[in-house]
Amino acid sequence: MIVIVDRGASTSVASAIAAILRGDRRCPVTAPSDLTELLEGAAAEELTHLLCVCLSKATEPDGWPAGVIGGLVRAARAEDARELVRQHEIAAVLVALSEAGVRPILLKGAPLAYSLYPTPASRPRIDCDVMIRHEDIPAVRVVMASRGYVAPLGCEGELLVRQFAMARRDMLGIDHQFDFHWKISSQALFTDLLTHAELARAAIPIEALGQCALAAGPVHALLLACVHPVIHHRNNERLIWTYDVHLLASRLSGDDFDQFAGLAAEKKVAAIVAHRLSLSHLRFGTSVPERVTARLAEAAAEPSRSYLRPGRRWHHELLSNVNALPSWRDRSRLLREVLFPDRRYMLEAYGVKSRALGLIVVPALYLHRGTWGLLKVLLGRK
User: How many CB atoms lie within 10 A of CB 139?
Assistant: First the structure.
């Protein structure tokens, strides 16, 4: 973790940024080198824009150099301009999908950016996550291809990824990417945590993204925000994900919180949810009703609790995924998709363009990939 030193006391950059997000506009450092470290830490967390918004009313007595605030404002304005283009594109894509009979449900970053954050650009994100029905996959691919989107190179597999990406770069040089999920997670234990049908029944409109924009409702959105870092990122902490939890939890009514606690227990992710709410309280003072905390604590032992263990790596995720599958047929299929991805992917990944040469070298490519992958696991690099 990046650390800054302020008059002899060690303070984490994450804690300093969290204090600013809570409303403390005072500059937490005095030395120029420490200020540089703080700004670099904010950039690494992709929180520069949000930091600018929070410091928009900061004054000289707050200790922020005018040049720093000016730099933040200039960067934020540029990102605001790019976000206007992304906003138009998201809305247009949703209309095109709707006209093709697809009912997409927005997940995670994009709908939060347009419903909870002070400005959409202040919620950083690389892509726009969308939940679709499995049977709509062909229609989605056709719609996206008609708009100039292509599938980035990546491993595919019905059990391995349970989603696909489509991306394009527009004439302004701005990248647009959509991730279409037909399951919430590629981890078998969580694949049916929330289905498209469940999300659709409680979906809410996001007016800023057009008349076809629907997103996960507040209870479902909070559940996803709590489990997302655990089931996709090995329980990694990023301030922006914790801030998502804080903003969502702060909007829930008492009845919503009761429904949320019941849903977490029903879906057997109460321990994960309790962990993320606790972290949000630690960072941002998130208020959670005591009865909700007690109900989450009462949940029986859950298999999902293992995902909270520190130090999880790639092979832990794979073993958990294999063990959670219902049949040996599915387990063997998943292992096959991991060890022997599609031949087209292998040739493109290794830059082999000759079809004739590809037929000859494919076995060697699989051997190299497997050997190198095992070496990275043994060295702790994967």
Answer: 15
